[in-house]
Amino acid sequence: MSVVWNEARKVIHILKQNNHNAYIVGGAVRDWLLQREIADVDIVTTATAEEVQSLFSKTFRMNNQHQTVIVRSNLEHFEVTTIRGQSIEDDLHLRDLTINSIAIDDQNELFDPTGGEVDLRAGRLRASNPADRMGEDPLRMLRVYRFVSELGFDIDTSLKEAILHNREAIQKVAVERVVKEWVKLIKGKQCNLALTGMVETKLYSFIPGLSLTKDSLMQLKKLPPLHEESDLICWTLFCLCSNYVDDMPLKRLALSNELLRGIRARLHFFEKRKMQSWLPLALYEATLDVALDVERLRELCGLPSYSFEELSRLWDELPIHDKSELAITGRDLLQSVKRPGPWVKEELRLAEVAVVTKELTNEKTVLLQALERRRAER
Ligand code: ATP
Ligand code: MG
Which co-factors does it depend on (predicted)? Predict the structure, then answer.
């Protein structure tokens, strides 16, 4: 059993010692039964959030989820949520799919009121009362395809009918929630199955924020599986497949600024790389990380690409790798011309480009003299 699983049992044990019931639920139990790697462990307990906080030294509350406490224990963290309803069975009945509605306690006893284990063995995605389930929270329809993609399971007929019936309701779901499921979906090993299924039920056309078209799904289907790729690579590929002309669709997705910046840089240099192979200045401006990702993107798109070694060697051959390695600074320039202004930045940039393209060597006197000459000529 994995480290995280054992650590979770310790948390449950402490709750039980204090007269509360506690169980591991949801994805962790599903993945444990399937012998898949466990992403995160969710715990439900009869204790209130305040009681949970009083029992563990390292906790914090998530302000949007009142009944959930994050408990840290030996580098692992767990989402501990107060049970909804009177019993664990009540709580399990409120979950989305039967395979996600199984709980286990610290004696390894399973609680499976909806028949999730049978569905797991049969490779079937099912919900009890699917019409109600999908209507209550339409994001669940996207989750269904996310699990098709991750697990390669079939969708039960009654669930598929419920999706056909409720599909338009997904339009009202918050984009932030859609985005989290969407990355998992495109990273799934059986992504093609999920994309085909979404075209079949037309759910894709109602998903907010992503501006999905049948054509973009077809483009995505041509890609190899992405489960080993970073989120950055996946998002960039998604943008490429979607033919986003500007980045308006991206802005609507409420991605982190860091992720957005990363995607934009990769899209920019991917385009540039279409015209020509890596020249020193482009490589310098891209940075090695971005350039390697661009080559990976090309490879995934079936385009010829540099190997890691080739690109690393080009990078190593660059005279400098960052502005901080330039032999002169703004202060050096201001020593001869004591008049601050935008010219300082301009001249530094000229020197930087000249050094990267090997027009000039990266030596202080060489650079200062060249800039002086240029000033005199103007
Ligand atoms: P992963 O392994 O990717 O974390 P997961 O099934 O654990 O998958 P989470 O989003 O972490 O997905 O949710 C944890 C559990 O909470 C689910 O297994 C399910 O029981 C329940 N759940 C999550 N989202 C919903 C939802 N929209 N409606 C009902 N139950 C949900
Ligand atoms: Mg989970």
Answer: Mg(2+)
Which residues constitute the domain of residue 179?
123-222
Q: What is the token pair recorded at 349?
A: 């940039």
In CATH, what number is assigned to the domain containing residue 71? 3.30.460.10
The pTM (predicted TM-score) of the whole model is 0.92
Going from the Cα of 56 to the center of ligand 1, the distance in angstroms, rounded, reads 24
Q: Cα angle at 46 between 144 and 18, to 5 degrees?
A: 135
Q: How far apart are CA 26 and CA 141, in angstroms?
A: 17
Q: Ligand 1 centroid vs 102 CA: distance in angstroms?
A: 11
CA nearest neighbour of 278 among 232, 313, 302, 243: 313
Distances in Å between the alpha carbon of 3 and those of 9, 36, 56, 130? 10, 14, 19, 35
Using one digit for the tens of pLDDT, what is the confidence trace for 331-347? Answer: 999 998 778 899 999 99
Which residues, including other chains, have CB under 8 Å from residue 233's CB and lie 6 or more apart? 226, 266, 293, 296, 297, 300
